[in-house]
Amino acid sequence: MKKGKVAWKIISSAVLLFVFFVMFILIRSANWFMNNFHEVELSTAVYQLFSPLKGTETGVLDDYINQCFYPSAAFSVIGIIIYILCDMIAGNLGLEVNLRIIAKDFRFKIGAGRWMKAVKIIALWTVVVIMLVMVVDRSVAVGLPAYVESISVVSRIFEDEYVDPDTVSITFPDQKRNLIVIYLESMETTYASESVGGGKQYNYITELTELAEENVFFSDDDDLGGAGRASGSGWTMGGLFASATGVPYKLPVDGNSAGDYISIVPGLKGLGDVLEENGYRNYFMCGSEAVFGGRKDFYEQHGNYSIMDYNTAKRDNIIPEDYHVYWGMEDEKLYEYARQELPDIAQYEEPFCFMMLTVDTHPGDGYICSLCKDDYPKQYENVLACASRQADQFVSWVKEQEWYENTTIILMGDHLSMKADFWDDINDYQRKIYNCFLNLPQGVMCEYTRNRDFTVMDMFPTILAAIGADIEGERLALGVNLFSDQKTLPEIMGSKEFNRELDLYSNYYYKNFIIGENK
User: Fold this and answer.
1) Measured between alpha carbons, how far is 396 from 215 in angstroms, rounded to an integer?
2) For 241, which of 23, 44, 131, 470 is 20 to 30 Å away at the CA?
3) What is the pTM of this model?
């Protein structure tokens, strides 16, 4: 065989191997996405997959590699081996056809390999076309067209609706209140029973349900309800970011590597900035490494937060130096850490804002700690019940502290859960994010808490109002103070149109927030 022909066969086989691999991995990735990220935006899944490994629990990425990358590579290699074998066989076989028509014999002979070559080409193109059809079908199913639109079509929602906190008056009371915000990982009201407004047969979050019912919560209906989905806030950093700034997370797609930027949205003013300007000492605590997702840089640059995380917990003797479970340390240790630090924080003359983020209820099946019971058949159900008890116990502890009287507590989910295999029994129940407000100051209106269409972005002005701040016009960023009678943007625009606008690219966002041209 001539060298040129050999080289061509090697090149064509390599190209075909690459094509097979790309199509296999696209199909398997789409199926994996739909199995693991039920009702989650494609951009959110992309963000999770391309997260840096530092400070993470790598189960999602490991599962993707095992379920998508390795099988796709194996199928591609098998496919190319079959192709090469067929090519070799085609070079050594001929086709001879003998026909007898009206007592006359006809003989047709095709040279060796010609008919096999034709069959091979037809079979190859049949396989490729079938796979292409599957790729297109799966791409539509996971929302690729909407994702392409989101990075190619320009929105004007920020030009038309954004309220710059620097342009409105935010007035605090003479005696400023302390603030504790507990972000509960993936906490939905869906986990409550149908009898109290949830979506399940059993109430896995009994204590959280009772806390909400005995205090103040916002709902999309007359029952437990909660906040709706907002584009750009469907994962932890997205939810933290949106609730603190009133806008979606729209930094250039590079995974959870926001921490690689020298300045995180320098043109954006959020909750931490407002609190710092008004004399608050800010703190952020989590059980993982705070660098993950750019959390450390975001909180340090927007409110000068003191950061307490998995690493500082080792320094402060909460956990041993070699301790590591799940994402770092479980919530049992996290609450212990908070109980240790808060009394010291409260001794300062300045008011404080203390935010903490739990982690045990993170999908897949959550983390079973020493406090968890075995009341339900599934691990995740028991983890939810344990998370509910721990949050309630921590709130009870705070209530016993001498500084509680002047402290507002807010519990809220960071986003809807990504646990795709937990919703088969909820029928058409509309999943919502949990929220609860405790110990509000006098004068806060609570007559507008029901039948509200709202998202975590409305929490920015609502949190400020919950500690007694008066906001001119009741709006900040894209959020509305839910204690007021002002309509939210989802109520004005409709949730579908609101989220579509959030999905689209924004020149205003890029120039004013990411670059900070006007600051």
Assistant:
1) 13
2) 470
3) 0.80
